[in-house]
Amino acid sequence: MRPAGQGEITKQKIVDGAVQLFSKKGYTATSIEDIRKFIGISKGNIYTHFSSKEELYLYVLELFVKQWLLEVEQEMKHLQSATAKLYALAAYYAKDVDYGLERTVPEYIATVGAEEYKLKAEDTLKQEIRFFSTILHEGVENGEFNIRNVEEYVLVIYTVFTNLTITKYLLGNEEQLENAFRHSVDLFLTGLK
Question: What is the pTM of this model?
């Protein structure tokens, strides 16, 4: 008989290993066998907790996004203006670029077969988009931004931020990446006023 709580410890070990491998190798290049070898347990243990690689990926993505949002909200709670929050968000994205499980989502959506899995991944990422939306709506309400269709601007800034994470591999320099994020907010704010 296994000790009480051992199942949750094993599940967390699986999740931690999966986050590292999915983030590093991508969805397609990571197999259950890779995860098994990486964390040193049997496939049976993995399948006890997750019925498929797709289910494991979605579970990991959901946890990752929830944790990311909690951390960002915590860092921003003292900020008063939407402008300051956008700059803080840019800095957070620049800092967090190496841990971006989100960058694997397009690959996941393109390769996974079941529509329900695609929809769950999209719903998970929409949490981030809603976070951006909240900031822009706040800026409109307090008079910082003069825009009519907030949701169009939300998609623009979200797309800019998520795509800038790719430039890390082109720039290879943290300071340049931070500057690129900051300048993207400068340009974006010009269009909001």
Answer: 0.80
